[in-house]
Specification:
Layout lengths: L23 H29 L23 H7 L15
């Protein structure tokens, strides 16, 4: 216990003596270069998913993919053939189409 110095024995800094200045180079690095670098990294991460994706379909361009029926029956051809035509034509704002 004799080797441990009490906490109050250390000289406290009351702010009267200013520390060394940063200098122009470090000030520019801290307040200009690092914020711009962080902005560019965040912007790059935001644009990354669209840069890696394949080209989108544009209207008028040929569609080179097979049709897909989501949540449809197992045999769509048979399901369409079994549907009976409906004679009611109600709907729209006037309730009659």
């Amino acid at each position: 216990m004799a080797t441990a110095a009490p906490a109050l024995a250390l000289k406290s800094d009351d702010g009267e003596v200013p520390g060394p200045s940063l200098g122009v180079g470090l000030t520019i690095l801290y307040y200009v270069v690092i914020p711009i670098g962080a902005f560019l990294v965040i912007g790059g991460l935001a644009l990354l998913p669209s840069a890696l994706s394949r080209p989108r379909y544009r209207p008028g361009a040929p569609w080179d993919y097979d049709p897909v029926w989501f949540s449809g029956p197992d045999d769509p051809t048979q399901a369409v053939a079994e549907v009976q035509a409906s004679t009611t034509a109600k709907g729209g704002a006037s309730a009659e189409w």
